[in-house]
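step: validate -> pass
step: tokenize input -> pass
step: predict -> running
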Amino acid sequence: MGRNWTPGQRDAIEARGGTLLVSAAAGSGKTAVLVQRVIERLTDERHPTDADRLLVVTFTKAAAAEMRDRIAAQIALLLEEDPYNVRLQRQQILLARAQISTIHSFCSELVRENFYKLGVSPDFRILDDAEMTLLRNDAMAQVLDEYYALSDPSFLELVDAFSAGRDDARIVSTVETLYEFVRSHPFPERWLREKAALYREEIPASQTIWGETALRYAADAVAYAIALTQNALSLMRQDEAIEKAYHDAYASDLAGLLDLQARIAQKDWNGLAFACGDFTYEKLKPLRGYGDDPLKNKLTASRKEVKATVEKLAGLFQESELECAADIARLAPLVAKLFEVTVRFGETLDRLKQERRAADFGDLEHWALKLLVRDTPEGAVRTPEAEELAARFDEIMVDEYQDTNEAQDMIFRAVSREESNLFFVGDVKQSIYSFRQAMPQIFLRRRAAYPPYDRTRDVYPASIALDRNFRSRAGVTGAVNFVFRQLMSVQTGDLDYGEGEELIPGASYPPSAEPDTQLDIIDLSKGDEEEMVRVESRHIAERIHRMMAEGLLVTEDGVQRPAGYHDFCILLRSANRYAKEYAKELQRLGVPAWADTGGGFFAAPEVAVAVSLLRVIDNPMQDIPLLSVLMSPIYGFTPDDLADIRIRERKEPLYIALVRAAQEGDGRATQVLRDIEEYRALAATLPSDRLINLVYEKSGYPDLVQAMENGELRLANLRLLLEYAKKYEGSGFNGLSGFVRMLDRLEQQDADLASASTVGGAEVVQIMSIHRSKGLEFPVCILAGCSRRFNKERGDVLLHPELGFGVKLRDPETGARVTTLPREAAALEIDRGEMSEELRVLYVAMTRAKEKLLLVTTVKDAEKTLGKLASRLTEEPRLQPYVVRSASCISDWLLLCAMRHPDGGTLREMAAALPGVTVSCDTPWAIRIVSPPAAEEQGQPEAEAPAMPDQALLSQLRSELDFVYPYAGLRGVPTKVAASDLAAEPFSFQYAATARPAFLSKQGLTPAERGTALHQYMQFCDYETARTQPERECERLVKQGFLSREEGDAVEMNRVQAFFASPLAQRILHAKQVLREYRFTVEIPSGEVQPGLPETLAGEPVVMQGAVDCAFEEDGSLVIVDFKTDHTKDEAALWERYRAQLALYRRALAVCTGLPVKECLLYSFYLNREIRGEGMG
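step: predict -> pass
step: emit ->
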């Protein structure tokens, strides 16, 4: 295809002999490789594969659609070169049937195909997040009520272990978390049995899964303390006096630490517990004249860090093995009961979903597993259905494999051919979805088991690494490599960031005059301490303004161009909470900004007003919603207006006061009450989505919000509310009251709905979460909010995927809660897992940048912060894993790395760090410590003398401002009208709710619907057949879809027969030509649409459209026939009702056909005769 693939990419494309795992670094072109592999499999001359024999699984529907489009585009390009290639033509057709989808789409199709084997409803639907939240709450309430009613002592003890307040929030949260986690495993109940068994094993604490976790942590902590102490002993040799005073104490510390290390290696739990608790520190000898000596300060800070580390270990190993065993034994029945409640919760939730013929995504996976595998004592065994399905696919390709879970991985294995035709692509360093049960360990296990691919041997399974980055400048990739060489290890990060993981720059960019990576440290010690968002926003605005003013160039398709605001992206760890604040501050400072957040639907002002209006329609006696609506742009009441209304009826509901004001002649109050009455009448019969749509049309609220700031987003949110109402109605519920109750429950339970998110390619700086940025790239990336602290608070109750359940138990003597080994181990592993994920989040953030990476952090006191961090540095080539996991925020990591960078001299000097901590790096950084810009100085340039106006421009502006639109009188006149609307009487909302409710519609068609059915029969029937066999013709129309079965049954055949027996029908049958449902478009003067216009405007054209039921040519002229089904015996009234409409038809047909119209008449099916009137021939 003309692309120069790297050797690694070429191997990933061409290796076909077995299972492959491709570890694709950020920007390495993995999607292009995956597409090319598909193309080359489809076009392989010796061993071709059809498109529908490939299963390609992606992480999102958008990624699946992109993949399909790219494959289709490549096939189209090949067909342009070889248009008569039959195989390519075949693949182009088969691509529509190809399985390119998400795992859930694949499972859904598989389940619907085999619903009868699984015993599920074939028409099940997928619940959205809002419905699932409500169902989970209902299920949990039922389960807890059941157990409380039983007064089960073990359950009550479990509740007591969880109690932290007046409700069951903690146990509810734990059960739901456990339920979601176990469903990520293929056999949840087996997992629960295995974990429960851990608490019943009578083995020493050091040999339990929790003891091993604690010992691993202790090993890292002691190794860190030993490194600090050895480093101190080495440094003090630089000064004889210091060494003489401090050496013995530090040597004693080292001996004690080495003893701890030996006990950890021997798994001597009791000895370690005693040694940690009894660790003693020899007193330092006095040292005179060294008050502010940097070496002395470094040594004392280092010893202080060692003491803190040992103190943590003493807290961890405070119990003997016997005491730990007793705690575990006490936990065993609690764990068993927790697991029992979780299973019961799952059963109850499944029943509620089954009653609604509904499912969630987890159900799809487990239904598919039920079809594909069986759980046996020997392990999972594939079913005949799995064998049959595996034969359909020549290869299974999985994108973003690092984000799969155990259940999904089991599905991939089950549909493969004994795991010999799998192709996995992913990057474990970008696995940042643990909250969705992603398990990067699956990827790591395969990578550890698969040897590197060797094309000369072609042995499988194998792994391939794609390490060339085609996205970023060398300065950016160099910064990423430098940071993660320091931070990422097996202990913290799940892998060693070394030669196989480092990014190799592969993109070509023009030389840059300044470093591509910049670290700005905003030091608040030299100014007023302000809120971080405002300080960073001002600094970022200043940097963006400066870069734009200096003419920053970015590269697009190999060509440089001036940067625009859309080339900048600000990444935040917590965008939902802070992005809008950054955007608001940037906009105030003159930088157009857009906060791309996913939540906050109910908090959006336009949604709050719309929901308040719905609440008022449901029940107008609610004061707060009514007040919100009255003061909204819909009605525009001011506080003074409402005070005048309210002061008359202070103790009555606001609605009563509004009624009284209307009775006293307040016109605006009268209009509000009239609108509410109309809406309430409509709400009695209309579905909630149709009601909302009508409210939008009548109130004009969507038009109002478009005139506000971010009008496009506000309008999208209103449309989203309409979509949520449609989903509610589509789920089997009906009516406004139910929809409002659902919204109320969601708000009460602090649940939210996804809000609209659209930037529409606008020229703005985007602000988004790091998670949302995954898969995207930007010329300039600004990582902000780095000093926001990690959440390391751990409650009394903890749950870990591998270590299970840990809780603080109540001491029977004191009543105080004391920790247990399982809880401490769970806390350690949760902390390690979260820090590993935070590292991967940072990796994703830094690898989004193409040309410039700006890291911004804010510290309260730079000198103090840097000095504290510097005490953790040693001369080793990378940071100790214990130091990495002990960081309190991303800023700590960046500052530790920056102090080790050759360009971090300013930081090392400020921190009084010793020179041995520096590590070599080939790429430069720009590292600055800056003071926050004063708020009053930003955006307020010095006053300048007023410039003299440009007289020519001023004259032109005046001319244009004085312009008077010549057609202003036509405001309100539509540009296009329907003939039936012009002739009809004005619509009245009085009759808007006269349509029958849905439950009455089940009894048959309405009279209007029966009349429509007869009109459709006359439109589509064959007149010759209908004249002799009307029933047979009706049956044909039903079979061919012109009429529904209900409509066919509603056509009254006796009236059809009467028509064809009439003289009028004979005239039609003998006519030269017959026009049926003849549609026309003509121009008419606007004066006929709106009488009373000035003569200069009355002749302006307006488009009129319509359709004539029937017209036939007779003696060179047309006769117009309008069929009517009105139930009336008054011929004169019927004629008068439609006379104007017939006149418009006459005029239109004469223009469109060029034939004169000699006669217009009505045919009444109710009266079975034609009706004529004066002036129509």
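step: describe -> Confidence is low (pLDDT under 50) at residues 937-944, 987-1003.
step: cleanup -> pass
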